[in-house]
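Students often ask what a holo structure prediction actually looks like on paper. The answer is less mysterious than it sounds. You provide the chain, you provide the ligand, and the output is a string of discrete structure tokens encoding the 3D arrangement of the protein together with zinc ion.
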Amino acid sequence: MLPDKCSIREGSRDCVNPPEFLITVVTGNDEFMLGITCQKHKTTVLSKIENLQNQGNIPNGSIKFENLKSVQTDCVRGDPDDFIQL
Ligand SMILES: [Zn+2]
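The corresponding structure tokens follow.
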């Protein structure tokens, strides 16, 4: 089960938009789920992830946005509890 809200927080408020993209980072043969985002926060998420990569908090690799509607959620590995706090 994936969360039904965007992972972004604006200040102290959670974004309440429905998520549209699954964010993953691809390194070699591995793909890590980072979170989900709405259309509005796609660029915000991208710059946050690049910051986290620069700080070494998440693996370096190419960041991928997959349309949630086309993702078979049954096949998505990982646990929403593992999502990073964006
Ligand atoms: Zn959002």
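The pocket of zinc ion is lined by residues 6, 8, 15, 17, 37-38, 40-41 (CB under 6 Å).
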